[in-house]
Amino acid sequence: MVANGQHDLPSELPCTKLDSHADTCCMGRNATVLYSHNRTVNVSPFLDSLGTANSVPIVSAAITYDDKITAKTYILIIHQALYFGDMLEHNLLNPFQCPLQGVGINECPRILEGDAVSDHSHSILVSNDELKIPLCLNGIVSYFSSRRPTKAEFDQCYHLELTAAEPEWNPHNGDYSRGEASMTGDDGNILRRMRPNVQACEIMGTWTTENMAKLDDPFLECLEQTIKVGSVQSLLRANKTTPAQLADRWNIGLDKAKKMLDVTTQRGTRTVAFPSLEARSRTNDRQMRYRRLNWRSTQT
Questions:
Q1: Could you tell me which residues are beta bridge partners of residue 65?
Q2: What gap in Å lies between CA 87 and CA 51, rounded to an integer?
Q3: Dist. CA 199–CA 185, nearest whole Å
Q4: From first to last of its 300 residues, what are the pLDDT tens digits of the chain?
Q5: Which of 100, 118, 89 shows the shortest CA–CA distance to 23?
Q6: Would 7 disulfide with which of 139, 149, 266, 283, CB 3.0-4.6 Å?
Q7: Rg (the chain; Cα; Å)
């Protein structure tokens, strides 16, 4: 939270500011609420004497960004944000929440980068550099101009998501701090682990070929040079719930319980490139919202 001063933006200029002390993105009067996540939180300021804001709703909201370089207008969607309405004049963007959606945020101002300054300095890079939002400074606070979208703009302009709609955002998740600590040694430098001595019978099952190819991991190259795979076998994942257990719990017949397990098999399960980072993912995938055709295609 920043005290008001003579360098504050004029009230007629709506904007979105970066705020690393806001552990969740916050939307104010210059954002349009798209829908609510049916969850609320109590928000505490940096001083206990200021009290708390109770039952603040968590929403997905939209703001408009006018790109002066391309003369295009974009609708920026911020999921899992706190909505304060007229109580908050400017939106607050959490620099940690956005990169989890693949949005790059270069917070360091250009004047502090010296010889390392580049075209991407002090900018927000959205969707593989499809949109670059140059940041400005208000005193020492980074911001960019934004406003509330009109209905016509929301229907016609291109949409880009700055934060993820799922999994559920938890700024107090201990995995972040543990993952950060595990990457540095006692000297404060990045740990550079030695390449494993690969043997034919020692394959690390936690890594997949696809993940290693994306990361340009030398382990994949070593595997390809050392191991010759003659055949592979994939086993069905065992279901922890048996038909007998389901029949007993639901008071239904055994045949009906077997059919129930067959038709409720989860599709579209997710994997992550770094198995050490765990997240609870919902099954609200687009491919699972629609009816499916039971067919197979073969190539001859």
A1: 74
A2: 15
A3: 28
A4: 444 444 455 545 788 888 877 889 999 999 999 999 989 998 887 767 677 888 999 999 999 999 998 999 999 999 999 999 999 999 999 999 999 999 999 999 999 999 999 999 999 999 777 899 999 999 999 999 999 999 999 999 999 999 999 889 999 888 888 888 888 888 888 887 654 444 444 444 445 555 555 555 566 666 666 666 565 555 555 556 788 888 888 888 888 888 888 887 665 555 555 444 445 555 555 556 666 666 655 554
A5: 100
A6: 139
A7: 25
